[in-house]
Amino acid sequence: MPNPSPEPDPRRIELDMQAAQLRDRIERVHLHRLLNAPLEDAYSESLSERANQPVLDQLEASLAEQLQQVKRARQRIAEGSGDYCEHCGERIDADRLKALPYATTCLLCASH
Length: 112
Description:
Elements lengths: L9 H26 L7 H37 L14 H6 L7 H4 L2
Helix pairs in contact: 1-2
């Protein structure tokens, strides 16, 4: 008789969902850029699009950084170190992991 599959890790499930949401949001930023690009070289449309560009750039960079954090947390979980601070090695508080599933540092190290 085959071994039953292990219980799914709720934190990994949460990280998978967050990663999917972040990828979706990044894709929407890309689509926004494509769909809202000026169709002609009209001066006012061009100015408007250029004014939005830094906001979109910052949003995309922030989403990409969050996605990297989620991927890093998933990798640490796979390696068996996901519950421990990557700086001091102490166990990360369960409440912190519940609030911020992609946390890789304890609260003390994060505050420094």
